[in-house]
Amino acid sequence: MSDLSPARSTDTRSGSGTDSGSGDADLRDARDGDDAAFSRLVAPLRPELHAYCYQLLGSAHDADDAVQDALLRAWRGLAGFEGRGSLRSWLYTVATRTCLDIVRGRSRRALPVDLGPAGERVVLDSAAPSTEVGWLGPYPDADLAGGPASPHARYERREAVELAFVAALQHLPGNQRAVLLLFDVLGFSAAEIADLLGTSATSVNSALARARRLLAARLPATTQQRTLRLIGDDRVRKLAAGFADALERHDTDALIALLTEDVTWSMPPLPHWYAGLPAVAEFAREVPMGRCPSWRTRIVSANGQPAVACYVGPDAAAPHAAWSITVLTLRGDRIAGLISFLDAAHVTRFGLPAVLP
Questions:
Q1: Which stretches make up the SnoaL-like domain (predicted)?
Q2: First vs last Cα of the chain: how many Å apart?
Q3: 60: in domain
Q4: What Cα–Cα distance (Å) separates residue 190 from each residue in 79, 195, 207, 318?
């Protein structure tokens, strides 16, 4: 089956077919070479395709490239789509194979906790970014559709971009990642996935069972979405705002008061990470509070979790440059994990400026 062979599913989920009047007209025009009609056809599906590619690849930048490549392949091969299944299923066929090509060409993306034990002492002068690792990145979640794709999906869309979930996915072979996402997140049937991947339903069910076992061993008992619901929106906002405020005021004690006893803090692409309140408190005093003169912050949402965009400057009156997106993992009414993704490009991806004047 070639990359552009159409899926033959009988997908009847709302919005997944092409039999509406406007959809039929755009499809006819797109086949005649009208790229604007093709853009209209795929526009409603772009956000979910992008999230899917991110889940498979662990990088929003890679997801950008994968979606662009997949849609280009689809545009060039549109004549191969005969309408026997849904346009949505066909686009997922192309996107899946595009992503699997990328996965086969490189190692999995990781977080510092995947690479070694936590540091016992704060690393300062010898700290340097690791360029030998493909690092997991944060995901702007503003465009995510709410709720599962079907009543049979096991994970909500926002659960399926949580950092713990996406990090765990990176430990699966590419085909198992795809099968699990298509079935448990997007609600495709085993028969549809088999057709999409050019394999059998038996193989799909076997891959799904293996993926679920491996994932269960790596996932926390409670998802962040459930935790956030239990905490409540008001407390979640206060925790994120409290972290941002403590950072801006260089108030180490206020920041430490927000953390659990077993808190972790990592800063990819730096390979070092810290676990436990004493080590994390020492890191906070020595680095963000001790070595960074001035902070400004913006509250955002990343991976379905509260997050803070951080800007650093030489003093309070000077311009501040984008520095990181710090994603917060909550437990109870405290912060149990912080991952500071260090790169101005992460900040601007959230629609924020590179510099605050």
A1: 242-336
A2: 54
A3: no
A4: 26, 9, 10, 57
